[in-house]
Task: inverse folding
């Protein structure tokens, strides 16, 4: 039985007229066949699904579109066939499709369609909406739902295309659909609003396409009519004229109908939803209006529609701004549209240019591309200031932004306007390349970039757009080597240096085929085409520079900066070309020039470049190795002979040595040190002469600091090369003994140099000491190298203290940031790094670093590594750092601390941040946290007040800092720590209520609160909040066995018997600085043997059962009375502190943010059935401020852009 047979006999056969003012109801589409193209019975009587005879499930239009197995045109054709048979039922099928696409489980039935208004139907569907999940088809993840969105949009497009010649003009179908979508788009339910807005915008796009076709047909008809009418009377066909007039009239009527439909959608949906509270809905509107303006520019590309895109450029969501820019890109790509965009460009150009600095990188990239399109269309549209705002982005660390800016720069400055004329001019001047002027312009641009000096970044930014220019190495070498011809200016010295730097960067980019350091996430795998291009470029640059480089070095050998850059080029050569192309004579020329450079320069960067070049050319995989090795050995022989001779003269003359003697030693030693870094020179035994220089300097105290620094560095390299030889082979006992003797003697020399009066010498000695102690630490014998055990060195306490004193006196010092140069900060950072490495391997020096601002990244990484290595050691380090800060504060302010001062608050804030580093898993960190509390309690009661026992101990205020860690204790450990605290307390202390005793009161309170919550954390392994979340996921609670196991290890951190294996003493260092840092008068030092609650007593508290009984009794006597006296205020505060984990704060903030967004969403989507005046007033009051002030003008009144 069909639905039409079940209808009311009075309604059957009657056609409903179009009701533009009334919104139509909906009914579900039911299909019984396997495919939509196959005709089959479908039915749903009064909303009850009808099954086919085989018992299969009913297939709705929503399911057909979701699965996407049938061609969309066949689906639409079958719907059209059903519409022709019964348009009411077909419309119910279609409109119910929109309801289901919104994720609504409800169904509009036939009686609802007959008797209810559209607003009532939507309200009814809202009540039946599934609110358990916020997801609906358009927001669900996964490829199936992504395909559904595409199918959904395609269905609407095909539907209008197939109905464009008849059905859409029947004044019923489109009125009903538009009416429903308008009502849904104003719903408070986001799913309805989102889905209906997407459907309406796609519907509008399809109608725009229909309107465009109608316009084309009208123009064709008009031309035919004019042509026929202009014929002479005898040949004119009046009947054809009448037909053309009738056709033109019909087309005009259809055009008017389409315009009415588009106006209804635009004014009823777009103008409200383009400023919706949900960014996705706003993005849909902007994306589609861009399509309309491009598709039908005659109708839509005007200020009345462009203003919406311009206003939305100020949207606060990057997704929406991105859609605006892409919509405008599609318009500016067509140069024919530029006249229509002129007013918009003038009005919103400043905003578009400013968006090149958008915080969202994707938006910034598209903004730069849009500015580039504007530049291509009209160079006069952008001012010099606008261009400069884009220029500097070529130095951005974000590569897509830099590449887009590079494209803009290429279009503006480096594109040839008349290639043929420029090539002819170059030939007349005798140049092989026409790019000379462009390269000069590139150099000038690089030099005028005052904000940046990163040539590699500039080259990488231009690489994709100006590759032909950047690979023109012949033109670059011509500019450097040849004299300028008539009409050309000579390059200045600064320009030559810049050109050489840029040229080297282009060579690196071509040879390595990946961005410079700092851009990109790493080297990506090259495609076959890219790999071939890389090989071709490498061969091309090798063949060119094999001949050009010796000439360049010969010309610029006196300029250290230019030579250092030019010597980077050989590392990018394909060295097989030397032998394959029989170019050994060019190799000899290169080696000759490098030798001259070594003999002429003593600058470190030049010598390092020469050393690296020799190392590359001496690679064993190339046949030229022997030729280069001979040249290198000859050079080293001459330098070592000269060095030995000059050292003898210097030592003999001693204090009578003149400047020439010192220069001879220093210059030769610098060259040898630079070569020793990359080459094994142990057969020349440089260590002996270097050691003699150092010993002489220590004994006589008159060695120049530069010679001492270079001798230390050269000796260090010699030791490392000896170690390499031993580790690579099978060393004998004599070899190990000899190397140990050398290392031991050198370490002693470095330790003596720490007291040198010259700071550079001390710094060099410190760095080398830390490096060697790390290299020759216990890690040397790892990996099956136990035979190297004789080479392991462990520093004694004297050396540890000297290194620690160096760090405290030369790194952690108070100095104004403005007075520190970048080089000084880098040196100090290096000192911090090496001291931390040494601490990790041998001893503790990092206890004093946590409260300095200059080394945050290093400190955080160190703290993380220390925690991974040993949680208890890390906890001890944290508490010791806080104790040292507290001692300094006592020394500055005296025993009467102002606990409200910023200094005390700073220590508490640091403790709070330290507490957060322990994370959420209290079981894993329980021993470490308990140990921290133990050390803190001992420190607080360490020194009694000299005025008597009725006064608080000197360090009692430290308990207020320690209370920041109480939230990290589980319930059992809180009780145990409280018991340990009471061992230090007298009866009178527990009764004191004066302000000076508040730290003790606060700390005790933090230990006596949060029992229930902590019990939850013990039994479930998480806090109460996380426990409730986990229970929702269906995780069963832990078994009693787990609880018993945790209870059995409850006192394990107390039973360690002080067996923590810390690498070195972790007590406050004996010498923490050359300045006294502690406030500990000797007369007030208590006897450790008689100290109550000593560490041994604390560690022997394994009798936890008896301790718990005593603890309960003490609670009855003291703790509970105290809690009552404080009226539970402290308890509440303690509970809040326990829960103050960042993750929970973030969750609550997110929840509040979602609630605000929800409220904003509801406020901005007022139901349209409200009285007009009130509705407009409330919309104006509650509209989100997404745009600039121009957007606040009423849409109807804004006809032109201002």
Result:
């Amino acid at each position: 039985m069909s639905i039409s047979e079940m209808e009311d006999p009075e309604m059957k056969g009657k056609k409903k007229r179009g009701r533009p003012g009334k919104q139509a109801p909906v009914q579900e589409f039911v299909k019984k066949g396997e495919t939509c193209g196959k005709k089959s019975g479908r039915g749903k009587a009064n909303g009850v699904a009808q099954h086919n005879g085989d018992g299969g499930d009913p297939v709705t239009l929503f399911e057909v579109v979701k699965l996407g197995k049938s061609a969309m045109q066949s689906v639409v054709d079958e719907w059209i066939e059903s519409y022709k048979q019964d348009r009411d039922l077909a419309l119910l099928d279609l409109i119910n499709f929109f309801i289901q696409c919104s994720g609504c489980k409800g169904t509009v039935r036939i009686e609802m369609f007959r008797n209810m208004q559209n607003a009532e139907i939507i309200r009814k569907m809202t009540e039946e909406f599934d609110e358990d999940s916020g997801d609906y088809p358009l927001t669900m993840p996964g490829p199936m739902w992504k395909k559904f969105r595409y199918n959904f949009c395609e269905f609407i497009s095909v539907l209008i295309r197939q109905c464009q010649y008849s059905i859409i003009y029947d004044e019923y179908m489109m009125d009903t659909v538009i009416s429903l979508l308008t009502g849904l788009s104003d719903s408070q339910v986001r799913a309805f609003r989102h889905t209906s807005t997407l459907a309406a915008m796609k519907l509008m796009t399809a109608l725009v396409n229909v309107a465009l076709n109608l316009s084309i047909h009208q123009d064709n008809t008009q031309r035919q009519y004019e042509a026929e009418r202009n014929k002479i009377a005898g040949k004119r066909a009046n009947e054809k004229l009448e037909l053309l007039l009738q056709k033109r009239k019909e087309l005009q009527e259809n055009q008017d109908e389409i315009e009415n439909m588009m106006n209804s959608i635009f004014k009823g949906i777009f103008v409200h939803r383009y400023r919706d509270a949900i960014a996705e809905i706003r993005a849909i509107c902007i994306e589609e209006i861009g399509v309309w303006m491009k598709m039908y520019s005659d109708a839509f590309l005007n200020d009345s529609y462009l203003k919406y895109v311009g206003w939305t450029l100020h949207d606060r969501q990057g997704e929406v701004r991105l859609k605006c820019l892409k919509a405008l890109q599609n318009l500016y790509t067509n140069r024919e549209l530029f006249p229509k965009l002129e007013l918009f460009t003038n009005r919103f150009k400043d905003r578009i240019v400013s968006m090149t600095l958008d915080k969202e990188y994707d938006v910034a990239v598209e903004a730069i591309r849009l500015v580039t399109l504007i530049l291509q269309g009209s160079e006069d549209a952008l001012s010099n200031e606008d261009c400069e705002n884009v220029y500097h982005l070529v130095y951005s660390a974000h590569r897509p932004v830099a590449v887009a800016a590079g494209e803009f720069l290429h279009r503006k400055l480096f594109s040839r306007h008349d290639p043929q004329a420029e090539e002819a001019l170059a030939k007349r001047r005798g140049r092989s390349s026409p790019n000379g002027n462009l390269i000069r312009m590139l150099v000038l641009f690089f030099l005028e970039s005052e904000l940046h000096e990163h040539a590699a970044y500039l080259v990488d930014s231009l690489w994709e757009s100006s590759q032909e220019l950047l690979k023109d190495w012949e033109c670059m070498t011509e500019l450097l080597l040849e004299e300028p011809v008539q009409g050309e200016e000579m390059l200045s010295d600064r320009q030559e240096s810049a050109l050489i730097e840029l040229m080297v960067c282009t060579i690196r980019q071509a040879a390595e085929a990946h961005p410079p350091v700092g851009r990109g996430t790493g080297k990506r795998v090259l495609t076959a085409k890219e790999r071939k291009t890389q090989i071709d470029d490498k061969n091309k640059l090798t063949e060119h520079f094999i001949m050009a480089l010796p000439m360049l070095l010969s010309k610029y050998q006196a300029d250290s900066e230019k030579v250092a850059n030019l010597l980077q080029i050989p590392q990018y050569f394909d060295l097989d070309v030397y032998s394959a192309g029989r170019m050994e004579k060019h190799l000899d020329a290169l080696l000759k020039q490098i030798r001259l450079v070594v003999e002429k320069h003593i600058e470190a960067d030049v010598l390092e470049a020469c050393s690296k070049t020799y190392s590359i050319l001496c690679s064993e995989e190339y046949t030229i190795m022997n030729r280069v090795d001979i040249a290198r050995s000859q050079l080293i022989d001459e330098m070592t002979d000269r060095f030995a001779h000059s050292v003898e003269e210097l030592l003999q003359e001693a204090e009578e040595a003149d400047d020439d003697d010192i220069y001879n030693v220093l210059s030769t030693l610098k060259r040898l040190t630079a070569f020793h870094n990359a080459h094994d020179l142990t057969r020349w035994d440089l260590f002996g002469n270097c050691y003699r220089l150092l010993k002489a300097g220590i004994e006589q105290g008159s060695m120049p600091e530069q010679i001492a620094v270079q001798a230390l560095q050269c000796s260090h390299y010699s030791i490392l090369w000896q170690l390499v030889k031993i580790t690579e082979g099978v060393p004998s006992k004599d070899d190990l003994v000899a190397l140990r003797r050398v290392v031991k003697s050198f370490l002693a020399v470095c330790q003596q140099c720490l007291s040198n009066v010259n700071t550079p010498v001390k710094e060099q000695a410190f760095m080398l000491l830390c490096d060697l102690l790390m290299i020759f630490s216990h890690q040397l014998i790892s990996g099956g190298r136990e035979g190297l055990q004789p080479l392991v060195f462990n520093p004694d306490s004297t050396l540890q203290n000297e290194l620690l004193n160096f760090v405290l006196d030369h790194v952690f010092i108070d100095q104004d940031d403005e007075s520190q140069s970048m080089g000084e900060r880098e040196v100090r950072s290096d000192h911090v790094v090496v001291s931390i490495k040494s601490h990790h391997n041998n001893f503790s020096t990092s206890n004093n670093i946590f409260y300095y601002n200059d080394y945050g990244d290093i400190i955080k990484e160190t703290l993380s590594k220390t925690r991974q290595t040993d949680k208890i050691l890390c906890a001890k380090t944290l508490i010791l750092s806080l104790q040292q800060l507290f001692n300094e504060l006592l020394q500055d302010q005296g025993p009467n601390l102002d606990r409200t001062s910023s200094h005390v608050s700073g220590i508490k804030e640091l403790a709070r941040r330290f507490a957060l580093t322990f994370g959420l898993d209290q079981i894993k960190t329980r021993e470490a946290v308990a140990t921290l509390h133990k050390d803190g309690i001992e420190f607080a009661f360490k020194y009694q007040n000299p005025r008597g026992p009725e006064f608080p101990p000197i360090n009692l205020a430290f308990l207020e800092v320690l209370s920041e860690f109480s939230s990290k204790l589980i319930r059992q450990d809180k009780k145990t720590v409280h018991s340990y605290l009471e061992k230090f307390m007298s009866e009178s202390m527990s009764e004191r209520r004066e302000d000076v005793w508040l730290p003790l009161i606060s700390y005790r309170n933090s230990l006596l609160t949060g029992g229930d919550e902590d019990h939850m954390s013990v039994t479930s392994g998480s806090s109460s909040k996380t426990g409730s979340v986990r229970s929702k996921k269906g995780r069963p609670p832990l078994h009693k066995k787990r609880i018993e196991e945790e209870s059995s290890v409850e006192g394990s951190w107390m039973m360690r018997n002080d067996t923590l294996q810390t690498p070195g003493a972790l007590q406050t260092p004996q010498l923490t600085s050359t300045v006294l840092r502690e406030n500990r008068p000797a007369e007030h030092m208590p006897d450790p043997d008689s100290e109550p609650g000593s560490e041994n007593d604390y560690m022997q508290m394994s009798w936890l059962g008896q301790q718990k009984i005593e603890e309960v009794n003490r609670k009855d006597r003291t703790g509970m009375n105290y809690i009552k006296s404080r009226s539970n205020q402290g308890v509440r505060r303690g509970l809040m502190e326990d829960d103050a984990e960042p993750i929970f704060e973030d969750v609550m903030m997110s929840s509040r943010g979602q609630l605000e967004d929800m409220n904003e969403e509801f406020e901005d989507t007022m139901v349209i059935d409200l009285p007009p005046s009130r509705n407009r007033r409330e919309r104006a009051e509650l509209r989100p401020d997404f745009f600039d002030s121009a957007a606040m003008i009423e849409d109807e009144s804004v006809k032109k852009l201002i």
Notes: The CA atoms of residues 829 and 881 lie 19 Å apart. Confidence is low (pLDDT under 50) at residues 1-58, 839-851, 1011-1109, 1114-1202.
